[in-house]
Amino acid sequence: MLVVDCDPQANATAGLGVSPESAQKNMYDVFMSRVDGFPQVKVTDIVMSTESGIDLAPASLDLVGAEPYLYGIASRAEVLRDALLPLKEKYDFIFIDTPPSMGQFVINGLFAADHIIVTLDSGSFALNGVGPLFTIFEDIKQDLGKDLHVDMAIISRWGEGGDMECPVPDENKKNDLASWLRSLLVPRHVPTKEEKIADEERAKEHERLAGMLTEIGKKFPEVHTVPYSPEIYEAQKKGMPISHVAPGSSAGGVYRTIADEVMKWN
Questions:
Q1: Beta bridge partner(s), residue 96
Q2: Quick one: fold of 2-164+209-263?
Q3: What would the pLDDT profile of 171-189 be if each residue is shown by its tens digit?
Q4: Domain boundaries in the chain?
Q5: Which of 109, 128, 231, 265 could form a disulfide with 96 if both were Cys (CB 3.0 to 4.6 A apart)?
């Protein structure tokens, strides 16, 4: 498997344990190869192995400087697709990580991809980027003749700051004499003002998330929610996938399900 990092933030690069500054050549050099006067660098020249066993075409902050040059290239949307063509037979899967903001790297990633996964977080503004994304899809169809469809949406950090599961009363509890007597002897907890406010805020957040999931479900054929998990951040610090650090965690289990679905695409 190969990960191609086309994001100047280089999170995919760092997430696989590679310092973005350590690579002598990276995706900046590959994109700039299409600009007159710059050295010819192929993706095969920059691919490196990582400790996880996943190959990586790294990125760095230098990528920010490549995007303005791409606007001067007639076939600018095809740069990444053409660069990856020699590697299609070598890897079963090539994952392309693009920036969260719209631009030439996103368009290149979409044009090169056979399948599309949209990643969102569970924040209040996550839905704001969905409309512009579909506008980009329509532009690519009209200008380049490629019809794009999203295969899957992943919402990360689901339930961060609070459990999505609302507590429900135990309807199966026996209403026998012993239970009745205990209710008389054990003083019932009276919620404080702060507890009531916290409960109200939690209920509002549950309602917001439920509405968000409904809206996203209308736009994408398959949606996965990845629960907030400290193990994700631990994996990022170690520069290893969650499958290598905490496969049995709540987030690890969901990503395993996602991986199983993606394996069916090949």
A1: 4
A2: Rossmann fold (3.40.50)
A3: 444 456 666 666 666 667 7
A4: 2-164+209-263
A5: 109
